[in-house]
Structures
1.
Amino acid sequence: QAKLKPNEALVEMSRIQYYDKKWTDSVLYVALVVRKEYTQPQIVVFANGNKMETGDIAFYRKSILRLQNQDNASYKNFYEPLSQHLKGIVKLYFSGDGVYHQLNLATLYNPTTKKYLNEEIDIQLISTARDFLLLNPQEQKKQLKEYQMHLFGYPDFAGQKLKNQQGSKERSLSQEAWVSRISKQQRFFDALSGSVTYLPGTKNEVETIQKIAQENNIFCKIYLENDANEENLKKLVSPTILHIATHGFFIEEQEQNRNREEKKFDNPLLRSGILLAEAELTLNEKNTSNKENGIVLAQEALNLNLQGTELVVLSACETGLGEVKAGEGVFGLQRSFQEAGAKSILMSLWKVDDYATQELMTLFYENLLQKKQPKRLAFQNAQNALKEKYIYPYYWGAFVMVGE
């Protein structure tokens, strides 16, 4: 409360399982609202948690991803009870939980004012309320000439350009059970042909960003095709900006038919990740050319050296998803990159349109590097510019920024 300004508020949302002499199947969402003038946090209860996690979120995602029509219901379902406590608030720090990690608050449409929520209030996403205390208002302290940008894109998933096709005898990770779980459930993998869909748009994406950086005399190194590999990623030390354009995945936990061997999947850090060069070989249980397997799990991302990194951009499908731990934010890629040291994460919540993503990223980096806007403002302005061209949230609302 002491850190908040008079026109600011903080909301921490908690998913709570209802207890009535015993644990029940009922779910509540409880928001704690903190304002400068409050003597204590105000409590807002969303009593229909089960409906929010089934019908309401299904309607939201169907409206955005399939129908691409005006969603007049989700504002009421996910936000309206909070609005009476946020009158006069200009800036909202929001820590979500549960179903709130599957939607972008900015895309909620207020049928009364006929505006999207990000047109009514400035929303800054944070992982937990305690992270708010760590936020540093002095953004981008480094001069642009000191920036170190490293961009990964267009990975050679099949290892087609490898000179050494013998593979590494040290590697045995491809035989682990989680490999088959990835391949069977993910849209990027064609089980019939055993191939991972290539992403030619990501090559243009990182090359365009590199051009913007070079025009502004900023160091920028790109890793394409076989260079976009796991080894090169793990060698990085405190890049200012790390941009990864590839496939992302999250595997839902399966309660049924779980045996002792599958208990390891209780850890969501082993069920989310990104694909880099040679990942297709691993998914087909073949050896790669080195000891790394091309699949960077969230567990491995924890060990990246990102201390001092201003921003990690995960330009991939559904990189924002992950299992929710009460009060701990998304326990997946997002949290892993933050724990590794990154101050901010820009990531997606649903399968993104390739061309719209390229446009968004181009606008964002022009704002950041050329116009020298703070990263959150650069992202907001890029999103608003895209909104003018594409009216539906499917195109401009897939990405969210969490952190500073």
2.
Amino acid sequence: ITRTWTATDACNNVTAHIQTITVQDTTVPVITTQASSIVVECDGSGNQGAVQAWLASNGGAVATDNCSDVTWSNDFDALSNDCSAAITVIFTATDACGNTASSSATFTVQDITAPITPEAPAALTLACASEVPAAVSLTATDNCAGEITTSGVDTIAAGQCPNSFVITRTWTFTDACNNSSAVSQIITVNDTIAPTFVEALPTDS
């Protein structure tokens, strides 16, 4: 602002005085509420809805300025594919004169949910070991889009005779974040069939 005072006497002699007033905003915005970190469970679709809502709210951060409104920006790039990896985002409030203040927080996608198991095959009771079927292939689903590893193990418990035993057949499903679940089938082998003669018995003489 250029402010001018002019003094004029009765004979029209004039003297002027000029004052210059400079208004300069050098005060940064004030972060009144800091951004808040958030942890969400993996949804299998990249959690884009959750992260976009968090970014749109500036992580919950609030700022005021002494001269103008503020505009918000952030340095978010992309979510990590690592299990339970936290992405740190800086939210920046900028006033009309380019003064800035910032607040940072983390967005974490975690996977603590085990794979959803299929139904195990029905229990079996068999007479002979030769009747034990081969293990079938089972498939699980998961809340995340990563690969599921399936492993199968037979555990055998002895019965009351050499041809009697119980097999516990277990399928274990493990997702990319090492969450696991399992189902089991019980196969009982119990020899209850009596021997049979393959030749005729001698007759009494």
3.
Amino acid sequence: MFNLEKLRMVLVNAYENSKYYNNLFSSAEFDPYQFSSTAELLKIPFTDKSILRSNKEQILSRSIPKEKLLYVTTGGTSGIPVEVYYTKGRERTRELVFMTDLWKRAGYKKGDRIARLRGTVVTPKGSNSYFRYEPVKNRLYLSTYDLYEENLPFVL
């Protein structure tokens, strides 16, 4: 019951503060104020990456000032990166906590070596490297765009 109430609060917030979700819910005849079952979510059309890209400004919440938002992009591992906004300071921390919890469930311990596949890997200026290594976190970031057999000697 608690989770349904929290989800209802998120849906009401989206309806009240996002032009995109207000229009989407209205056109789907979905009333977030009356939400009581996850089955009702089937009324809402699926939102894919192309919809996110073409409606990014309308999706933004009117309740959060622009100066409190951080513009980021996804890695683009499935093709074209998606541009999104985080609330400065909060979502990045939540994401890290979430990811660390998932890694722990898979057996990760702090300090273990990690190889992360990313769409784009930012490397130091002047570098033509296909990877970036963070020694403090013991993480190797690899660009999925550059993982070709001929590049493997540069990564391994």
